[in-house]
Amino acid sequence: MKQESEVIFQPEGKHISVKNGTNILEVATLAGVDLTSICRGQGICGKCKVIIENMARVNPLTKVEEKILTSEEVSKGYRLACQAKIHESLVINIPETSRTGRQRLQIEGIETPVKLEPLIKKYFLKLPPPTLKDSRSDHDRLLEELQKKYNLKAPEVEFEVIKNLAPLLRNAKWEVTVTIWDDEKIIDVESGDQRDSNFGFAFDIGTTKLAGYLLDLNTGKVDAVDSLMNPQIPFGEDVIARIAYEDHSELQSVVIEGVNQILYNLCNKDGINANSVYEMTAVGNTAMHHLFLNINLKYVALSPYTPVIREGIDINPKKLGVKINPNGNIHVLPLIAGFVGADNVAVILATEIYKSKKLCLALDIGTNTEVVLGNRDGILACSCASGPAFEGAHIKHGMRAASGAIERVIIDPKTLEVKYQTINNTKPCGICGSAIVDLIAEMLKAGIIDICGTINRNLNSQRLIEKQGLKEFVIAQGGETSTGGDIVITQRDVREIQLAKAAMHTGAAILMKKAKVTGEDIDQVFIAGAFGSYIDPENARIIGMYPEISLEKVRVVGNAAGTGARMALISKKIRKIAEDVSKKVEYIELATNPRFQSEFMNSNYIPYADLRKYPETSRLLKKIGFYPKKPPHVM
Amino acid sequence: MKQESEVIFQPEGKHISVKNGTNILEVATLAGVDLTSICRGQGICGKCKVIIENMARVNPLTKVEEKILTSEEVSKGYRLACQAKIHESLVINIPETSRTGRQRLQIEGIETPVKLEPLIKKYFLKLPPPTLKDSRSDHDRLLEELQKKYNLKAPEVEFEVIKNLAPLLRNAKWEVTVTIWDDEKIIDVESGDQRDSNFGFAFDIGTTKLAGYLLDLNTGKVDAVDSLMNPQIPFGEDVIARIAYEDHSELQSVVIEGVNQILYNLCNKDGINANSVYEMTAVGNTAMHHLFLNINLKYVALSPYTPVIREGIDINPKKLGVKINPNGNIHVLPLIAGFVGADNVAVILATEIYKSKKLCLALDIGTNTEVVLGNRDGILACSCASGPAFEGAHIKHGMRAASGAIERVIIDPKTLEVKYQTINNTKPCGICGSAIVDLIAEMLKAGIIDICGTINRNLNSQRLIEKQGLKEFVIAQGGETSTGGDIVITQRDVREIQLAKAAMHTGAAILMKKAKVTGEDIDQVFIAGAFGSYIDPENARIIGMYPEISLEKVRVVGNAAGTGARMALISKKIRKIAEDVSKKVEYIELATNPRFQSEFMNSNYIPYADLRKYPETSRLLKKIGFYPKKPPHVM
C-alpha cells in the first residue's frame, strides 16, 4: 500500500502530496486552500463541507457526519473535511459556501470614457382614466400618452406586459413607469414612479473566471462587482476539453447557474431586485459564447474552425435561463472568428484601437491569448493556445491568485537569495502567475537558467535540489511555508512556461510580419487579462512574452474584456462599433501559417532565438555576464 | 321521487325531458344527438362513450363498463351511454370521438379575391462549403449567399434556428431551403429543396364554433376545412358567462386544445406535417380574442368596456401552445372596441365595405351580432347582444344545425298546415335557426301571431295547444318525429326570438340614425355568420331582423369572418388594411345611446312598431288581411 496520495483541490487546481490517513481539513490547511472551519476540526460547526468525487478513496461516513449532513448532501458526495481521511489520490471540490475569504477578484479593468446612451430608458406617465367617451384600449391609451408627453413613436409592447396591463394600470391608479428598450419595445410597466430603479449587468465569461458588473443605467457607474470560478472547470480546464465534453447543454446550464449566482450576489450587495436589471451584455471567447447560448459548438473545434454566428445577438433572458427581468434583453457581443471571440472585440473597444492613429499591439492573456495588431486603418487578430500555466495550472506549486500565493519574487544574482511577497502577507502556500513571470526573468538574470530555459546544474546553492534526475529551485523553504514543505519551481515548470510564452510571442510576431512592422513601429502595447493586471511588464518582456518594445509604450489594462462589456451596456453607439469591428478585423489563422513552426521554435528561447531583436535585454544579460557565448540557431 | 329528468347534451346544448331509468343511448337517440353505437346498446362495441359531470345522478358502473373502460377514463367521468341510466337531471358531454356524422360545418364563406402576397416565403440555396480560406460563420455564409442569389438584405435569424444550424447545414450537404417571414426573419432552414411544403392556417374563434382553414401559401388556395364546437361552451354559453368564469387560463387552454385538434385534423386530411404550417391568422370577438391570447379580460365586461389591446398582434405559437411550426407566427387581427372584435374587422375585409363607393349595411349574426354601416368614406359599428336564440338555445325544441333539425318551414295561411324540411331528410328532432326565422315569418303571415308576437288564442286549429296557460304551435306531431314527442314553438320561444331580432334591428336603426340615412339610401346589405348562410333573407326581413331594404340588395355571405382571416393569411396588404379599418371604424356604444330604449321597444314588434318603415311587408300583411287595425304606438 502506498504511503502518500496526490490531492487536487478544485476549483483552484491546487495539487498537494499528503500522507495517507490525513484528514481533508488538515490537507487544505497545508495546501493553503480557502476552507472555513470554526470549531477547528472538532466536528461541531459543520462548516467545512467539501464534495468528493470518489467516495471509495476516503473512510466511510462517520457518526458526526450522519448527524450533520442532510441525506441530499450525502447523495451529492458532501463530506465534512475534518471527518474524511484520505486513503488514495483524489479530487476534492470546495463549494463556494465553504469559503471564508474570497479569491482576489482580478476583474478590475481600464476605465474608458463612454457617452451614456443606454438602450433602456424609463418614462413616468399619468394617464387619463377611460370613460364611455374615451374607451380607447389600454394599449392605445398608453402609447398615445407616451407620444403626447415624450414624443415617442408607438413602440411595440412585449406581449407578457400586455397580458396583465389592465389590472396593473387600474391598481396603479393610472400613474405608471414605462421601460422601453432601444426606443422600440416596451418591456415593463410598473406602478408609480420607478425611474430610479434602472440597472444593467455586464458580464465577462472567461474560460477560467466569470466576472459580473452591476451598473446604474441612469448614471453609467458601476455599483458592484463580483466574480466566480467558471463552474465549467470540472468538465475540462481549457476550451478544447470543454468542447470535447459530450453534453454541451450541461455546460450551458452550469455556466448559467454561475451567471445567476453573480447576479444574485450583486443585487444583494446593492439591495435591489433583479427585476430592475433590464439588460445584460456578455462577452466571451467563441467557445464560451456558443456554450452560453447553447449553440452547437462541434464545428468550431474542427478545421476550418467556423463559428456558427459572428454577429451580435439580442436574446430574451428566459430563453437562456438568466434571471434578470424576464422581459429584458441580453446582448451578446459579436465575435471575430472561431478562436477570436466577443471578449476580443470588447478588448478592442476598451483600448480604442479601432479609432487610434497609433499602431497598437494588444495581448489579452488567458487560457487562450488573443493578439491584436492595428489601428483605425485596419486590425489583424490571432489566437494562441497559451494554456493555463500562467494561471497556476500544470505548475508544481502553481496556484491561482488567492491568499497565501507568492505574487512577487526577486532573486539576488550573487547570493541567489530569494525575496518574495504573498497575497495578504500570510505564509506562502504556492506561486501565482505574476510571480511565475518574475521567477523566470529573475532566474535568467541570475544565471539559474540559460536562454534555452535549462537550469544550470553547476550552480553551487542549497536552493538548487534534484528530484528523480530533474533540477528544482527552492523559492520558499519548508520552515517558511504554510504547508511545511518547500515551494519550488521545477525544470518541467520552466518548460511549461516557455511553451505558454512562446505561443503568445509567436502570435505577435506573425501579426507583425503580416503587417510588415517591427517593434519600433509599434506605438502602444496593451496587456490585458485578469492575470495581466499583476505582472511586471519588464519581466514579461525579459522572458519574451511579447516583442521588445520600449517599456514606456506598455500599458497594463486589466480585464479590458469586462470594460468592453460595460461600455456596450451603456452605449448603443458602442454596440454599433462592435459590429463594425467584428466585420473588419482580419483573422489570421496561425495553424496554417507557413511561418508558424519556425517562429514558435524561435520563441521558445528566453527571450527569443534572435537576440538582435531584444537589444535591451541583450545589453542587460551582457552586463550581468549571462549573454550566451554561442547564440542559438535562428530558424 | 320525480318521474322525469331534464337532460342537456353538450356541446350541442340540446335539452330533453326523459323518464327516469332511461339509458343515455336511448335518450340520445330520442333527442337526435349524434352518438355512435355499433352494437345498438348491447354493451359490446364500447363506442358510445359519454362524459358525465355528476356521477351520483346515474346508476353505478356496470360490469360491462368495468371491462371496457380504462381506469383513466373512469377517473375522467366516462360512461357507456347504453349502460348508464338517468336518475336525476344532468348534463352529458359527448366527446368528438363518440360521434358518427359531423354537424353541418357552416363555415363556408364568400370568396373575395386577393392578390397572393403571403408573409412566408421559401428559398432554395446551394452554399459553398467552408474552407480555411473561407471560414465565414455559418450564419454569415447563409445570409451572404441569400443576398447574392435572391438579393435579400440580411434578415434576422430566429435563435432556435441558429442553435442547430451547424449540423443541419453539414448533414444537408450545404443544400437547404430557407423560410423567411415578412422578409425580415429566417424562421426555418431545412435540408434539401422543400419549397413545396408551405402552408398557412386561418382561424375563426367563434363563441359557439371554431372554424379552421388550411391554405397552400404557394397558391393561396384552401386545401382543407374543419370545425368544432368551441370547447369553452361548457364554461358558459355566451361571452358574458365566459368572462364571468373565474379561471380564464382554463378557458384559454381548452380553446387552444380545440385549435390544435382542428390543426391536427386538417394536416391529416392533407397529409402534411404541422411543421410545414408556418403562419396562422386568427379572428374572434374581443372576448374570444383576449381569451385566446390569455390577456386579462376583466375590464372588457365593465363600463367603459375598454379592450386591453386593439392593434393586431404577431406572436410566437409556442407562447400560446399552438402546434404549428414552433418558430412560425400567429397574427391575430386587430379589433375595434370592447364589443366589436377582430371577427368584425374580418367581415369588413371580406365584404370590402372599406373601399366600397356604395353605402353598405352588414350584420354578422351570432351570439353577439355586430352591425356595420358605411363605405370608403367612413364606417360605423356597434354590437348587439342578440343571444343564442337563433342558434337554437333557449328555444324549447331549438337545436343546432345537425342531422334531423328542421331547417325550412312553410305554413299554409288557410289550413295552418305545416310543411318542413330536415337536415339529411331524417325524422325531425328539433328546430334550427333558419327554420325559426321561417316560423316567425310564416306564423305572422298566417295570423298565428300578431305584430306584437302574441299567439292568437282564438284560432281554431288542433296544432294550437296550451300548456300551463301558455300557447304552443305544433310544427311536427309525435308520430312524425324521432323523439316520439311533438315539436312545438311556444309563446315563450316567440318572445326570445323577438328580443334577439330586436337587438339586431336596434343596432342597425341606431347606426342609420347616426349616419342620417334611411333604408333607401343603403345600396347593399350583407348577412354574415354561419347561421346567416341558411336563412331566408325575405323571412328575416319580414320578422324585422333588419330594416326594410330592397331584397335585391341583400347578399348572404356566410362565414365572412373566416374569409377575412384567410385573406389576411395570404396578403400582407390586407393586414395593413385591417389596421387602418380597426383605427378608422367609429364604434357606437348602444347602452349609452339616448335612442336605445325607445328603438329597442319599437324593434320588439314584428317587423317594427312604425309600419310605415316596412311598406312592402305592410302591403303583404294588408293583402293577406293581417294588417293591424290599430298600429302600435311608436316610441
Report on the structure:
The structure is a homodimer of 635-residue chains. By secondary structure, chain A is α/β, with parallel strands linked by helices. Chain A has five domains: 4-98, Beta-grasp domain (Ubiquitin-like (UB roll), Roll); 120-191, Ubiquitin-like (UB roll); 199-332, Nucleotidyltransferase, domain 5 (2-Layer Sandwich); 346-386 and 498-623, Nucleotidyltransferase, domain 5, CATH 3.30.420; 389-495, no CATH class. Chain A is built from 18 helices and 27 strands. The first copy, chain A, is globular and about 100 Å long. The two termini of chain A are 50 Å apart. The mean pLDDT of chain A is 91. At the A-B interface, helix 4, helix 5 and helix 6 of A face helix 4, helix 5 and helix 6 of B.
Described by the principal axes of the CA atoms, the overall outline of chain A is globular
Largest protein-protein interface: A-B, 43 and 43 residues
Going across the major beta sheet of chain A, what is the strand order? 12-11-10-13-15-14
Q: In percent, how much strand structure appears in the residues of chain A?
A: 15-25%
